[in-house]
Design brief:
The chain is an all-alpha fold and 335 residues long. The protein has a single domain (7-334), classed as Ribonucleotide Reductase, subunit A. The protein is built from eleven helices and no strands. Helix 1 (7-28) runs antiparallel to helix 7 (184-214), helix 6 packs across helix 10 and helix 7 packs antiparallel against helix 8 (216-228). It starts with 6 loop residues before the first helix and ends with a helix.
Length: 335
């Protein structure tokens, strides 16, 4: 029977790995300034300063792009809660403490840049955005508390395993949102944000890999728990379910993307199904992950059917609306 390590022991065992990964991160990271990615010349005052208030016609983004951008921004806005969560589950002594604060500082740029872009380009309703931000940040991010689902990080492995997948999912979401915006400025900005998220994912993924080598059964217990209960941190955003459907149907982040671009790459990197060091219940959990993948594959197929039905309904509604407008135009011309 393998020895169960405490979080304090794991933190100590993983310290050299964390330091190595910090050194690599600092070599690979690129410092950048949010203001360099904002088209400031497009901006103008709102009504309070003698300008014009926002109206929907000012936005150049599609519904999918608007929804994804706002969802991404509101997710980034909850950074204070994320900082608290990882600070509680890691600790604030070097090198862990350095990483917690460095990661927080880099993540903070994302919300700054996204909000500046959306407000300067008048892509979204700024009043509604601020109302929703206040509600979102007041709710905070406290999984397992405040009616926010069952999953609560009970161990170091729970935290580091979760963010390995979450950072990759966030990278993919930002990158696909940039493409959906159909605006080279937004695309360039979100490429930059995605590059940050990718480096963050690599850090957590590789620390987790080291944890799998040190305590494979403990790590598998957390991995199984995280994937069986996985939710993106943005699930606390008001009206999340409706927004998630729009984002999924729009091809920004859907079940197929989640499985093929997030879950499987990480599991393959960790060689989860090739390893022979899981024993007892952990080995059973690894086998159950195989079943989970089959379930996710089935969910992908069902989603595609539902998506096509939704798109077909939307096409019919658009056709009816176009026909009605044509009849009104013809009637007006005749009179």
């Amino acid at each position: 029977m393998s020895t169960v390590l405490t979080d304090l022991q794991l933190l100590h065992e993983l310290e050299p790995v964390v330091e190595q990964n910090i050194n690599r991160h600092m070599r690979m990271r690129k410092d950048w300034n949010p203001h360099d990615y904002i088209p400031w010349s497009d901006g103008k005052n709102f009504y309070a300063l003698g300008g014009q208030d926002w109206n929907p016609e000012q936005s150049k983004l599609s519904e999918v792009a608007q929804t994804a951008m706002v969802q991404n921004l509101l997710t980034e806005d909850n950074l204070p809660s994320y900082h608290r969560e990882i600070a509680m589950n890691f600790h604030m002594d070097d090198p862990w403490g350095f990483w917690v604060n460095r990661w927080t500082a880099e993540e903070n740029r994302h919300g700054i840049a996204l909000r500046d872009y959306l407000l300067v380009t008048r892509a979204i309703d700024p009043v509604e955005l601020e109302i929703t931000r206040m509600e979102q940040v007041t709710r905070g991010f406290s999984p397992g508390q405040n009616q926010q689902g069952d999953l609560f990080a009970e161990s170091l492995f729970d935290s580091v395993m979760y963010v390995s997948f979450q950072e990759l999912a966030t990278r993919v979401s930002h990158r696909n949102t940039g493409k959906a915006c159909n605006d080279p400025v937004a695309d360039q900005l979100l490429q930059r944000v995605s590059a940050d998220e990718n480096l963050h994912m690599i850090f957590y993924r590789d620390v987790s890999a080291a944890g799998l080598d040190i305590a494979p059964n403990q790590a598998m217990t957390s991995l199984h728990r995280v994937l069986r209960n996985f939710k993106m941190p943005g699930y606390t955003v008001p009206d999340f379910r409706r927004k998630a459907v729009i984002i999924a149907v729009g091809g920004v982040y859907d079940p197929r993307i989640h499985l093929d671009d997030v879950v499987m790459p990480v599991l393959k990197k960790w060689r989860i199904f090739e390893r022979d060091d899981f024993t007892g219940e952990a080995a059973e959990m690894r086998d159950d992950l195989g079943l989970l993948i089959e379930e996710l594959e089935d969910a992908c197929e069902k989603f595609e059917v539902a998506k096509e039905r939704r798109l077909e309904r939307e096409r019919k509604v658009a056709e009816k609306k176009a026909m009605k407008n044509l009849l009104l135009t013809t009637s007006s011309a005749a009179s």
